[in-house]
UniProtKB/TrEMBL annotation:
Pfam families: Pkinase (PF00069). It is an enzyme of class 2 (transferase). GO terms for molecular function: ATP binding; protein serine/threonine kinase activity. Residues 345-372, 409-433 are annotated as: Disordered. This is non-specific serine/threonine protein kinase. Belongs to the protein kinase superfamily. Residues 419-431 have a biased composition (Acidic residues). It comes from the Eukaryota.
């Protein structure tokens, strides 16, 4: 029986299916918790006699045997990321943490005449992309610099083991399942062995392979079809840091045209550091990111970076924990702009129908257009004025500065801690002021009662 096309996800294996890895260790599959270009992700356990617990520490990635992404990722872990090798490297550099997931085993399996490849990994939490979305697209400057320093350590380790990642982005940065303050660089499906047996790949442009990777962050070398390298990884990281700090990139409006994206990135790199420093948002300067990218610009294709120098360029005030809360300037900007749009929408509604302030299609289109320029969660909506009862409801995870104009309904995850200070004195004053306003006479009389309204009241 021929397997389905490679582009399709594999047919799910039954719950409780037992896999045996290449070292004869047995693993029991639980429920599916995710999927990607490689295949499916299952909860897993080494206790094959019991159902897999919801809080298990392991997951198993499964794809068809003929597919490629998981095979590439597996080769990276087997060659470069064995736990004992990482521990030795960390001790030599006095590091307490290295953000690479732990590989526990792999193997092949067969079910209903279909062949599968699987890999057992540490279970991780949510990804950084969801955190960014809940924060209006930005992270605090100290957090961005801390993330940058940790990722430089990760890149140094994999570079010294002859690999590059080639696809660094927030969606591939996973928060720890048990400890969400630890961030891991995951998904090595595009990893590339740039220096096999100590011999660096030669610089060679290939337009047929141009623009590989994630278009927002991919390096200028990748745009030209050049094989991934160390400087490419660092340039991708620099673009990510700039995005997390500013909430946008200069080429966001032309992402559908890779050639224009390439031109915009070339202009930014040609005019450093001014081109990046001019992108500063309020008090969050971009000087450190500008210096980081300026150093990357000086690297030759085969040059070995000075990783300690790069970490020094991203040095910030040391803090014990990563702070994933929304930057204050993002809170103020989001609440102000959305409040203005909601006010405009309410006025448009009153002009057409004085008795009911429902949002018009035109004004909602304007809100949606605004949302495109500052990414927020799809669940965010613009609503009519809240009643007194609604204003008094307590909603966890809602920032006080935003509540009055826009209710951020970010589903809580185990990947980060939400602010707990959801109440302030201003809310009570506004509720009191709303209660003191005179009620329109039309509402005191009540609506006319007809057959339809009577049936609804019953």
């Amino acid at each position: 029986m021929a397997p389905p096309r490679k582009s399709k996800l594999p047919k799910p294996l039954p719950d409780g299916f037992v896999l045996t890895d290449s070292e004869k260790k047995k693993w029991r599959l639980g429920k599916i918790i995710g999927q990607g270009g490689f295949g499916l992700i299952y909860l897993a356990s080494q206790d094959v006699d019991r159902p897999v617990a919801a809080d298990t520490h392991f997951v198993i990635k499964v794809e068809y045997h003929e597919n490629g992404p998981l095979f590439s990722e597996l080769k990276f872990y087997q060659r470069a990321a064995k736990p004992e090798s990482m521990q030795k490297w960390m001790r030599s550099r006095r590091l307490g943490f290295l953000g690479i997931p732990t590989y526990w085993g792999s193997g092949l399996a067969e079910h209903n005449e279909l062949r599968y490849r699987f890999m057992v990994m540490d279970r991780l939490g949510s990804d950084l992309q969801k955190v960014c979305e809940c924060n209006g697209g930005r992270l605090k400057k100290a957090t961005v610099l801390q993330l940058g320093q940790g990722l430089v350590d990760v890149l140094q380790y994999i570079h010294e083991n002859e690999y590059v990642h080639a696809d660094i982005k927030a969606a591939n940065l996973m928060l720890g399942y048990r400890d969400p303050e630890k961030v891991y660089l995951a998904d090595y499906g595009l990893s590339y062995r740039y220096c096999p047996d100590g011999i660096h790949k030669e610089y060679k442009e290939n337009p047929k392979k141009g623009h590989n990777g994630t278009i927002e962050y991919t390096s200028l070398d990748a745009h030209k079809g050049v094989a991934p390298s160390r400087r490419g990884d660092l340039q991708i990281l620099g673009f990510c840091l700039l995005h997390w700090l500013c909430g946008s990139l200069p080429w966001d409006s032309v992402l559908k045209n890779p050639a224009q994206v390439q031109e915009a990135k070339a202009r930014l790199m040609d005019n450093l550091p001014d081109s990046v420093q001019q992108l500063s948002v309020n008090s969050a300067s971009t000087d450190e990111v500008a210096a980081f990218l300026l150093y990357v610009k000086t690297l030759d294709y085969q040059a070995k970076p000075d990783y300690q120098c790069l970490k020094g360029l991203l040095a910030s005030i040391a803090t014990e924990k990563l702070d994933f809360s929304m930057p204050q300037e993002a809170v103020e900007e989001l609440s102000t702009k959305v409040a203005d749009l909601c006010t405009k929408e309410k006025k448009a509604g009153r002009a057409r129908r004085p008795s009911k302030a429902k949002p018009s299609a035109t004004s909602m289109d304007e809100v949606q257009e605004h949302m495109k320029s500052k990414p927020v969660l799809d669940a965010n909506t613009c609503r009519p004025p809240l009643t007194k009862l609604q204003s008094q409801e307590k909603e966890e995870g809602v920032l006080p500065a935003v509540r009055r104009s826009l209710r951020l309904r970010c589903k809580p995850t185990k990947s980060y801690k939400e602010d707990s200070d959801d109440n302030d004195d201003d809310d009570e004053e506004e509720v009191a002021a709303a209660a003191a306003r005179p009620i329109a006479e039309c509402y005191l009389r009540g609506p006319p009662i007809g057959p339809r309204t009577q049936s609804k009241q019953v």
